[in-house]
């Protein structure tokens, strides 16, 4: 990862974090801007990004590479202390659903801090790549374990406690559907995480794109805190994008829905940021181009598999509801959303297939990925215009993290992998034949 790209990503994450949730307090969501010490810590982190460039320019002769790293670490101290206090506060309010928690703003901040502290070219720090990669994999593995453990705990609470008025008396099949849907939402992202942790070649950009989707939805997704309506009520005003804004090790049912939820994303994102910050492109252009092609191919195949699995769950859920005499209203919004979602899966599979073999069809793959992205945009517009539901069973209330990744981020990743890297452009044939734009003399009458 180039220095300028590290810096640009870190600046973007730190700036957007100001508008993102930090924790829970006074019964509501508190943003980063509500905590002055966090704001000052972020400002210090932004300022320290200039230190390696000052050292490289020789403006301060005493600023050695080792001292540059120490200055950055010292400037990040208050930010890391703020994150530590956030974790302590969550542990102190473990059973309190209105206090503590770790917001998406804290996740963005930890990712930015990892990118800031990563050595720049001036700072050298040879030998950190291997140790950093090990540390990144450990963080991701611990995060996955924590997500799994907390999800299992929440399932137990869900099955044994009174969740919402009258919810404890719902039939077993209804609870089984909720748990199955929650399992898919938890297990599918973990597939990407697990494979990328074992083999980051080709898979690391997929994992980074999934983490980016999580932060994007956390930034733009908002709920109306002044409304007392449930997500199952027609009066509930759902945003276009929606996700759990603040994770707690034990969730209070009702704040972000009634399904079991896991916690530990902050560790997964921190590990991903570390792997990404220390990753370097292959020196051999051909090898690097193959890695990007592999990224595009596995993105298409894995996204298609996830879409078809989610569609199968929707069909099963609607069928079980109808078999148990629950009204199933297949309205136009629901049918359109499911068709477009399935069409995106077909285009994703076709994109991966077009990149198979020794002669990848880059132009065809780009056209398919463009159609896939267009399907995602149409699906987003459809969902934002009204909820797509059938009776009590809400299929699409908003674009969650998983839907955002599968229909928006994944096709963008494929397009970027096939167009942006220099190794791909230098190794593969051009998208348009040479001379396509060459001027041709006008026909002259004989």
Structure, explained:
The protein folds into two domains: 1-279, no CATH class; 281-427, no CATH class. Helix content is 62%, strand content 4%. It has 14 helices and six strands. The chain has helices at residues 3-17, 36-47, 51-57, 65-92, 104-117, 128-160, 172-198, 204-220, 265-278, 285-323, 332-354, 362-385, 401-419, 422-427, and strands at residues 21-25, 28-31, 102-103, 246-247, 388-390, 393-396.
Distance between the termini: 59 Å
Give helix and strand order, one letter per element, not per position.
HEEHHHEHHHHEHHHHEEHH
Helix content: 55-70%
Mean pLDDT score: 81
Rg, rounded, reads: 24 Å
Topology:
Blueprint: H1 3-17, E1 21-25, E2 28-31, H2 36-47, H3 51-57, H4 65-92, E3 102-103, H5 104-117, H6 128-160, H7 172-198, H8 204-220, E4 246-247, H9 265-278, H10 285-323, H11 332-354, H12 362-385, E5 388-390, E6 393-396, H13 401-419, H14 422-427
Antiparallel strand pairs: 1-2, 3-4, 5-6
Helix pairs in contact: 1-5, 2-4, 4-5, 5-8, 5-9, 6-7, 6-9, 7-8, 7-10, 8-9, 8-13, 10-11, 10-13, 11-12, 12-13
């Amino acid at each position: 990862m180039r220095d300028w790209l590290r810096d640009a990503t870190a600046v973007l994450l730190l700036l957007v974090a100001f508008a993102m949730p930090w924790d829970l307090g006074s019964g509501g969501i508190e943003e980063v801007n509500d905590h002055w010490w966090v704001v000052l810590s972020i400002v210090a982190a932004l300022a320290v990004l200039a230190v390696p460039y000052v050292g490289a320019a020789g403006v301060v002769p005493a600023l050695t590479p080792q001292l540059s790293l120490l200055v950055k670490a010292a400037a990040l101290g208050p930010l890391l202390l703020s994150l530590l206090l956030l974790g302590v506060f969550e542990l102190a309010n473990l059973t309190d659903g209105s206090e503590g928690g770790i917001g998406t703003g804290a996740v963005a901040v930890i990712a930015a801090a990892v990118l800031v502290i990563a050595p720049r070219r001036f700072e050298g720090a040879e030998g950190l790549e291997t140790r950093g990669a090990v540390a990144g994999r450990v963080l991701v593995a611990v995060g996955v374990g924590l997500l799994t453990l907390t999800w299992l705990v929440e399932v137990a609470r869900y099955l044994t406690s009174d969740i919402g008025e009258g919810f404890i008396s719902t039939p077993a099949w209804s609870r089984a559907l909720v748990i199955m849907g929650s399992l898919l939402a938890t297990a599918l992202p973990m597939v990407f995480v697990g494979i990328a942790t074992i083999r980051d070649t080709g898979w690391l950009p997929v994992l980074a794109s999934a983490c980016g989707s999580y932060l994007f939805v956390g930034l733009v997704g908002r709920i109306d805190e002044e409304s007392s309506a449930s997500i199952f009520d027609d009066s509930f005003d759902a945003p276009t994008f929606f996700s759990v804004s603040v994770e707690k090790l034990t969730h209070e049912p009702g704040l972000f829905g009634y399904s079991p939820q896991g916690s530990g994303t902050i560790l997964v994102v921190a590990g991903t940021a570390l792997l990404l910050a220390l990753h370097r492109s292959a020196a051999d252009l051909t090898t690097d181009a193959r890695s990007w092609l592999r990224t595009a191919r596995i993105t298409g195949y894995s996204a298609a598999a996830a879409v078809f699995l989610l569609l199968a769950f929707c069909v099963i859920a609607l069928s079980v509801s109808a078999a148990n005499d629950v009204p199933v209203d297949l309205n136009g919004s629901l049918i359109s959303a499911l068709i477009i979602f399935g069409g995106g899966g077909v285009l994703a599979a076709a994109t991966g297939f077009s990149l198979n073999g020794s002669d990848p069809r880059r132009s065809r793959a780009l056209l398919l990925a463009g159609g896939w992205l267009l399907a995602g945009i149409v699906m987003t517009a459809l969902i934002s215009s009204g909820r797509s539901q059938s009776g009590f069973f809400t299929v699409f209330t908003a674009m969650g993290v998983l839907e955002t990744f599968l229909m928006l981020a994944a096709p963008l990743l494929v397009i970027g992998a096939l167009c942006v890297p220099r190794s791909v452009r230098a190794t593969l044939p051009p998208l348009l034949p040479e001379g396509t734009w060459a001027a041709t003399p006008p026909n002259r009458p004989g």
